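Students often ask why we bother encoding 3D structure as a string. The short answer is that it lets us treat folding as translation between two languages. Here is a chain of 347 residues written in the first language.
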Amino acid sequence: MRTADFNYILPPELIAQQPLARRDQSRLMVLADDLPPIHDWFFNLPSYLRAGDLLVLNNTKVMPARLIGYKKGGGEVEILLLHRIKGDLWETLVKPGKRARTGDRIDFGNGELTAEVKSILPSGNRQVEFTYQGIWEQILADLGIMPLPPYIKEKLVDQESYQTVYAHELGSSAAPTAGLHFTQDMLRTIERKGVNIIHITLHIGLGTFRPVREEEITDHKMHSEFFHISTQAASAINAARANKNRIVAVGTTSCRVLETVFQTQKQPYQEANGWTNIFIYPGYHFGLTDLLITNFHLPESTLLMLVSAFVGRERILASYREAIKENYRFFSFGDAMLLIPEKMKYD
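And here it is in the second language, the structure alphabet:
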């Protein structure tokens, strides 16, 4: 299967540059069975759920991961935190790379934070060790900038609008954007309906959002991302399966954790920590994801391939064409989809 099979033309003006004033006011396209798309609003999502469903949320929290510093005698340097290796040693993306050779030191703020380049990885990323006085999280909050995707050109007015309302575990380089539509009031409404809610964690790396460069999608190598599923969450998944209740993944990140567990464990599922590089594309059989809530994704991205695997490539691309015709908003701050495959059609 070729990467070009997942291309489409998007007018640039449909790329959402700012979040809506109210999170749940986005549009919601519902693809259920082989019916035409339903055009709805996200605040009506609870009407598509039913008692006994299990809603799976990714509670990762975005780090203010962009740091702008200065190398003595070498000008401005930007460091983007990717993931912690151990202690204060991080894998990072550095721009411009020519200003970050092994042994170089970069200062941030008024000297509160210093980075030393320890090594250059084959990918070109840098292993960087930080030194500072005080609490790392507070220093990062003071000096760091929210790492918005490159297609968002406007400055973010409210940094918290790029966090889900249930964000808790600090460690992502990007937000799990399907979750940005939820409000606390909506989550309470969903719980009152009898839907069970669990939290899992997947810390999102930049590799998830990059377009696939290889001509054949099977030649693409996914970046690994850290995930965690608690004993309580695993028990809830086991109960949902035993009672034949639907498991609803909020976002492709939650879906990838569920499918990683399905691929690596046998029932009953257990608590798990680790790294996943699962790559889901058409032909994949989903084991733990029955419904999927997701945004509209970039052309030729692994995320578009995942949703194509869920309900079919031609159906997804046709729905994207309709979304463009209907002026839906795309990507991180854009509108949402609810995907209900035929076998799990809502009654």
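Translate back mentally: The CA atoms of residues 122 and 173 lie 20 Å apart. Keep this in mind for the problem set.
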